[in-house]
Structure prediction request, 384 residues.
Amino acid sequence: MVHCARVIDRKTDRELVRAALKRSRVVALLGPRQCGKTTLAREFVPADSLRYFDLEDPASLARLTEPDTALRPLRGLVVIDEIQRRPDLFPLLRVLADRRPLPARFLILGSASPDLLKQSSETLAGRLETVPLEGFRLADLGAAAQTRHWVRGGFPLSFIARNEADSVAWRRQFLQTFLERDMPQLGVTIPTVALRRFWNMVAHYHGQIWNAAELARALAVNESTVRRYLDLMTGVFMVRQLPPWFENIGKRQVKAPKVYVRDSGLLHTLLGIANQRDLEHHPKVGASWEGYAVEEVLKALRPDDACYWATHNGAEIDLVLFKRGRRIGVECKRADAPTLTPSMCITLADLKLDELRVVYPGAKRYSLARKIEVVPLTELVNAA
Prediction:
């Protein structure tokens, strides 16, 4: 497969990593396979350096036959890629990170969340800072790339592919490799066919309230099994569970999470959508835009906490963000010119929001009411 040679400058992610390395002795750059972690890490330490260890490279594994002998003498920044393949290194990293004076800091790269890498969160408690990496950001690509980014997703080789057919082929191969190779390497013993069926069903539930009983019946398994599948896919950054927010307002509120396939390109492949024309005519087009906008807003604003809110009477909002003591509502609308709705007014009042932003794919910013503004997605992510 041939890809175009365009190089995307991931300046936002690079600065996040640089700032974390100044603060912390060990920084974990975590994200799904093929999202660009290795490329970004090599901007800090070259691949041919003795301070770079790729745990999928036999030569690096051979150098780590005696880990203490290999790592203790090193000075400066040390990179360990695919750390989930050697969880036995975490206790040693704790010892090395506690030295005074500190001769080396560590940038570890992994394809699983701290919850799945339990030993890292326990062994390196108080020493580890996590930086998420989730594919290309719209802020780094520019407004002109918004539609392409939405259709193809943020995985670098999917986004930069020469044409739509190449992009789709890459995503199909990624899905197959991820289920057949990557998940077993993480110790997941669930049959590939079962996980693929589950992932396809989550794609059809994208943007909806999670209903474990319904999926359990469809897959002919119990609810605890479906819950385990969902947690696993969340832990490897393929699925987002957005928790509900509860406010003591005397209304019946929804208490189950919403689920999203995090990468819009993978969502479209799971749904059989090959290009923009297919997407525009698909019944999930609105849900797809919502999930895409949710991911970009979360990447750009980096809130202290994020959830959604809904009542059984129909009032709802896609995101309630908490950042620096402020409460911000975000509603994602795929419309040419979003208008004020009763739900927006109810949400603003009931949740006592400091502001409500209606994010849409257009180019013009305008006000709907006091504290309620329509904001282009490209403007919001660039202003963050």
